[in-house]
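Re: the 588-residue chain
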Amino acid sequence: MPIQQQSFDVIIVGGGGAGLRAALQLSQANKRVAVISKVFPTRSHTVSAQGGINAALGNTDGRDDWRWHMYDTIVGSDYLGDQDAIEYMCQHAPEAVYELEHMGMPFSRNQQGKIYQRAFGGQTQDFGGDLVHRTCAAADRTGHALLHTLYQQNIKSKTIFFSEWYAVDLIQDEQQNVTGVLAIDIASGTLGVFSAQATVLATGGAGQIFYTTTNAYTNTGDGLGMVLRANLPLQDMEMWQFHPTGVLGAGVLITEAARGEGGYLINNKNERYMERYAPHLKDLSCRDVVSRCSMIEIREGRGVGSEGDHVLLKLDHLDAKVLNEKLPGIVALAKTFAGVDPSKEPIPVTPTCHYMMGGIPTDRFGQVVKLNAQGEDECVRGLYAAGECASVSVHGANRLGANSLLDIVVFGRSVGVAIISSLEQNKQQASPITEAQIEAASQRILRLRKTQEGEQVAHLRTVMQKIMQEHFGVFRTEEVMAEGLVQLKAVYQRVGHTKLSDTSQTFNTELIEALELENLILVAMASAELALARQESRGAHARIDFPNRDDENWFKHSLYYIDGKQGQRPVNMRPSMVDPFPLKERKY
């Protein structure tokens, strides 16, 4: 196979919000940056984020405080979030939003001309008091506005893009330091070796391990698979958020902004059931809470439809101006995917896989960490991660709505700042990549192109997705998960013997899908193993057989390695500017 070799100061894998924000910080500092993206950057999954980005600006309520935001995020995480990282994110949130505004991001405006802010779930004033309007929005297309703004700024700053290139694996030296990546040009089939002093993984989530998900088809856990194959751990992979309002049968997201603007959920008795479960915040409780309540309604026979398999989201009582100006995308999505006009009838919705709270463990500067022989954190030289693929961890066991866009811009910038400092301290060029290293990284592609017999990629992907959907959903039990894990291990073995029906070099999408499947099955295995191991209920991880949170035994991060080995890391309870928030019962 023909192989190109190129060298940069920094390589960023992923062209979504986190990757573009990191690239912008570096390009503006005159670093030579390459962004490798398997889709054109503005088609990255960030573009589908709808509701907004959190920052304690106080534009709607007249007052807000980043410390309240920090408290809400910690409580929302069910205390599994690291308080030093959460403090950093919430403190820098206003600055991050104002930076985007100054870049030209077209935020919606209130009557005073300030950035419009709406209510979102789990967000309060005065450390758990009244609901606060903290979510800065560009109608219901905030991710779209953010991604295009960052892309335009990167073009201005002359960031180098390799669009429709697929990153296959990390390249490491003898000391396990990361020196670059191997990638393939989807258009030509040409392999490329990209060497750099720093490599940033910003590859997004992996929701495609589930059969029904709000995630794009491109969310296949590529960075996670690369990290596992580099003998590095993943963290908290049992923690998957199910969004309460995915369109029935389609999985398409109906943003939390619909409830933030006054929408609410009802069952088959036209009862607004969240008032029973969470009388304080009602429909704007945290997502894991609302999803569980919806599933309880369905399981207890109060679901809607002939199958009783969903609930309804009512928006038809809202003013037409609110629907047309604040939720135009939702109106279009409801008509297209649910076949209903939300101004006239409710939308059929059901909890749907939405977000991965776990990922690649990092510090708050985005440096990937591993445990050394003494069980202490040790930075992996040359490797960083940001965005949904990273576990900083600011989301812990459950993410607050609209903290995801904040996460990607704050820690995308943080990664850029950290790398600039590192490059200035270390003036050496990137280590040369040897033929042996290239050959080792190329083995997966060589195997797939040589295999004559085996199973079809698409079939095995569907089998895996259905196992995850049926055995590792909103509610979990040991018996059901153990059965699913046995089935998943069998699929894992079969994935090692897939074959390609397309043997061409040019635009061989089947090859890319086969490589993606190898990442997906690793993510599924990590999620299943850690879910079975964590014998408690915390945040999105709800076990019927262990219904209570167990801080004595499980107040810790879970680690998973490619050989199935598991470990733990302590949760960071050491913010630098405020006193730690102690553990307490989570109520809404």
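DSSP finds 17 helices and 22 strands in the chain.
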